[in-house]
Amino acid sequence: MVILGTTKMAEFSGIVVYRKDYRERDMLVKILTDRFGFKMFFVRGARKKGFRLSAAILPFTKATYVGTINDEGLSFINAVKEAGQYQAICQDIVLNAYASYILGLAEAAFNDNHPLNEWYAKIAKTLSLVDAGVDAAILTNIVEVQLLGYFGVKPNLKDCVICHRRNSVYDFSESYGGLLCQKHWHLDPHRLHLDRRTIYFLSFFSQVDIMRLGSIKVKNETKDKLRLTLNQIYNNDVGINIKAKKFLDDIKNWPHAVLNDDE
Ligand SMILES: [Zn+2]
Predict the structure, then answer these.
(1) Rounded to an integer, what distance in angstroms lies between the CA atom of residue 149 and that of residue 105?
(2) 168 CA distance to ligand 1 middle (Å)
(3) Could you tell me which residue ranges the DNA replication/recombination mediator RecO N-terminal domain spans (predicted)?
(4) Ligand 1 centre and the CA of 177: distance in Å?
(5) Axis crossing angle, helix 196-207 with helix 136-147, rounded to the nearest 10
(6) Which of 104, 107, 234, 256 has its CA 20 to 30 A from that of 243?
(7) How far is the CA of 217 from the centre of ligand 1 (A)?
């Protein structure tokens, strides 16, 4: 008998990322686990009526599971201890898209079967904040900025990349990989020409501790600029394709009535 990888029974915390039907009665469920990273679980009988674990494999459920973890290939869930859903995220199509994108970013950054270490708690905390009504666009920006390093892009957002001057007026340069002080703007004619407020938030987002975040207020105008800037960095320097992001970009063009926006 050949044993590929190792198998172990384990109790772990996890967040359901997505699921898809598999064969006639089963499902494949992608779960972000605290200790083993993103893993695909084979759940036998999940599509049958009255399936005993059905509540625990709903999207955006956070639960404590007991299961069989395989290093490679599919893992299995045997039992569930406590489970709860991120309610607002489940009920609101826009929050749902933000949460999907945040999980998609983490999945692209870490890939399957790699522990996220402190990032598991950070992602869980971010989803709780989204669920509690903290600005999802800003939370998304913070995760985007802080995950850049995992995509091999680590812009210096603390001081001028050339002279390391602090407390200056800066602009962002993609080709120099970070901030340029006014004295060095001439080096990059393609710098992004960002205003001070946008630069301030980019820098702040790179340093803020997600675990200690409360609410953040950012003007709509600055939010739009942050979105454009991060789109540019992600499109040019990261180049990943996440379905929920496309959806979020499209939502901008929807009429307010569709989104039940009372304004
Ligand atoms: Zn400088």
Answers:
(1) 12
(2) 9
(3) 11-81
(4) 13
(5) 70
(6) 256
(7) 30
The helix/strand/coil state of 244 is helix
Distance 128 CA to ligand 1 centre (A): 39
Neighbours of 128 (CB within 10 A): 13
Residue 195 alpha carbon to ligand 1 centre in Å? 17
pLDDT tens digits for 46-77? Answer: 999 999 999 999 999 999 999 999 998 999 99
- Provide the residue ranges of all domains of the chain, joining segments of one domain with +: 7-85, 89-259
Architecture of the domain defined by 89-259: Up-down Bundle (1.20)
Under the banding of pLDDT at 50, 70 and 90, the label for residue 125 is very high
Coil vs helix vs strand at 76? strand
Of the pLDDT bands very low, low, confident and very high (cuts 50, 70, 90), residue 167 is confident
Distance 187 CA to ligand 1 centre (A): 10
State the CATH class of domain 7-85: mainly beta
**Coil, helix or strand for 103?**
helix
Bridge partners of 63, per DSSP, are 14, 83
Task: Give SS3 for 237.
Answer: helix
**Residues lining ligand 1 (ion), CB within 5 A?**
160, 162-163, 165, 181, 183-184
Identify the CA nearest to 236 among candidates 174, 185, 161.
Answer: 174
